[in-house]
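RECORD TYPE: protein structure
NAME: Glutamine synthetase
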Amino acid sequence: MSVENVLKTIQENNIEWVDFRFVDLSGRAHHISLPSTEVDAETFVNGVAFDGSSIPGFRGIEESDMVMMPDPASTFIDPFTQHPTINIMCDIFTPDGERYERDPRSIAVKAEEYLQKTGIGTRANFAPESEFFIFDDVRYESGTNSASFFVDSEEAGWNTNRKEEGGNLGFKVRVKGGYVPVAPVDTQQDIRSEMSRLLEEAGMRVERHHHEVATAGQAEINFRFDTLTKTADNLLAYKYIVHNTARQYGKTATFMPKPLFGDNGSGMHVHQSIFDGDTPLFYEKGGYANLSEMALHYIGGILHHAPALIALTNPSTNSFKRLVPGYEAPVNLVYSKGNRSAAVRIPVAAVTPKGCRIEFRTPDSTANPYLAFAAMLMAGLDGIKRKINPSELGYGPVDKNIYELPEDDKANIRSVPASLEEALDALAADCDFLTEGGVFTKDFIDNYIKFKRNEAKSVAIRVHPHEYSLYYDC
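PREDICTED:
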């Protein structure tokens, strides 16, 4: 959408407010709303001022003036506001007109520009499968003398004996038994359909939705791939629509990777490919899974840099509660065709040359999508430039269920880091591939590591409720 079309949309839809949004280091959106009467073509040239010192991980108070520069292509009409509103994502600039090097969206834009400068291709397509839970109740606290969490869902397997108004009607979802059942086991068809309708109204092409494996309302909605930055914009809008639709239904949605103990967590499997114009560069008939040599080198880059990548694709302490064997978690740093126990899967069912792609299954939705997608692209491009052959480095292919391999065979397979701190250590040691072409800066990486170490420490120093079970009677 052009600036002219945005202004036309405002007029034709009687829009009262224009909501300008940007994203912080953690991937959370922030916004400032202007009356539509205050928005004209000059707004897209001069931007919207805000205080960067109030955003964690951004600037100090002595240099707090910053500017949001709106991208008209990201515009969509907000389906939740009482007063007609349009939402527009922005890049962050300094007052002197320079891109702010700590702005995640600007990093994504620079990654796309870098791809074109390399001459390898003209665009990178991304498609995340962002899973989530829909709960009926959530309560949590973390204080000096108490710590707890509680979630509940009407369809949860633990509620088979719960007293309910009108009687308990059964048909609960068993633990690990939630993959695509029909009603009445699946109670959330309508809410997912409503989410999907609103996603399509916001400009996304929804491909499917379904119940996921876990009990207690785990769901997935897939939307069509797009270019890197546009897909990250879409994912921000996706999470906004999922959260607020759930709220309208009197429920709550979370993209937290592991909100439940003993059942599957929520991942964000990321499909990706590179094109030169309309020509797919990852396809070669007769190759392994019909992959080109370029695609294999891209996989080599992803797997070689995976420990560092995971600091950006799985950037929460909770991420590593999901990344454990036994819960369909892709902890094994190998590639394989059609094998969901590998970190990199090559889809092979109903795949056309233009649909040929690789799927990195390790990420989750605590990732800032602008940073995660940019980092994956940079790792893959490094693999292409250095011709990293994943097979020569011991990264597969492994076309067996890795979870059921003999222990001696498993011992030869490298695994993901075991904690956020380990992943941050890996990022500190292996970040040169990210700084190629000035896409990420060393300042950004150092600041990001410091920011995330503080998060990890805040969890590590707190008393965990399970420690009372283990140690109170010592």
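COMMENT: The two ends are 65 Å apart (CA to CA).
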